[in-house]
Amino acid sequence: MSAGMKRREFITLLGGAVAWPLAARAQQAALPVVGFLSSRSADDSARVVAAFREGLAETGYIDGRDAKIEFRWAQGEFDRLPALAAELVHRPVAVLAAVGGFQTPRAAQGATNAIPIVFGIGEDPVKEGLVPNLNRPGSNVTGATFFTALLGAKRLGLLHDLVPKAEVVGLLVNQNTSQGQGQIRDVQRAARDLGLGLIVLNGGSDGDLEAASASLAQQRVAALMVGADPFFDTRRVRLIALVAQHQLPAIYQFRDYALAGGLMSYGASITDLYRQVGVYVGRILKGERPADLPVMLPTKFEFVLNLKTARALGIEIPANLLTLADEVIE
Length: 330
Prior knowledge:
Layout: H1 3-29, E1 33-38, H2 46-58, E2 68-73, H3 81-90, E3 95-99, H4 103-111, E4 117-121, E5 141-145, H5 152-162, E6 168-173, H6 178-194, E7 197-202, H7 206-218, E8 223-226, H8 230-233, H9 236-245, E9 250-252, H10 255-259, E10 264-268, H11 270-285, E11 301-306, H12 307-313, H13 319-324, E12 327-329
Parallel strand pairs: 1-2, 1-3, 3-4, 4-5, 6-7, 6-8, 8-9, 9-10, 11-12
Antiparallel strand pairs: 10-11
Helix pairs in contact: 2-11, 3-4, 5-6
């Protein structure tokens, strides 16, 4: 073989070696980008992000192989959401998942009326103005809700079953939202039916939480119900620590609270909600329109008890509640 032929073969091989990485980069660049906007932080969202990825995978999309997920976290600072939503819209993304309370999809709506938005919230999306109708969203917005705020009466009943001798119960709620006001009305009715005194404590800001904590002892509250609000979710560990200081039995909205040391929780499965959001994102990537996808409602509910916390409080869980529990944390 002549020197010229060897040189030509070497150049051909070199060109192929260069072309492979370029082709790989081009393929990666062609992946659809999914925006994931959350009011929470990455540190406390590992379980729900895993559930979101699971839903995407059910429709054939694996992050890094078939799609690329871009995350933006507000870390409990809700006023950051509009800027973070704008970042994702300018990226741009093919679909935008907006989770962690109605403020997140509302920020997404403010940033775009063209890119599909899939929300995951605990509020009523019709009352919050996200969609005109649950069955026919009719725009670029759809998603899943678990109506967690509507379960206040059920939670109060479980708390009463746990401590039937408690005469005064506290309700910690974010009074700055329509959802919070609705919870107050529902729980007040339930308290009257049970013959309980109800003390409403505002928790709309960090300062309010400190003030509410100080009021617990002054008001002789014997048990506490923590209302449903995304603000509370972003301060979950802090809330549980405040309740522990007062040695109060308390009930929360999500399993995550019981896992973090809360006494008990009752509500729709938050991981199932995030999985459903992932499924809808995948279906939209495949070509379906959000306007044609009805808002998904909860199908899986969880009552969780933390026996370790019960022992620390000196509380014996009644047998009927142990039987009802979907999960008992030892």
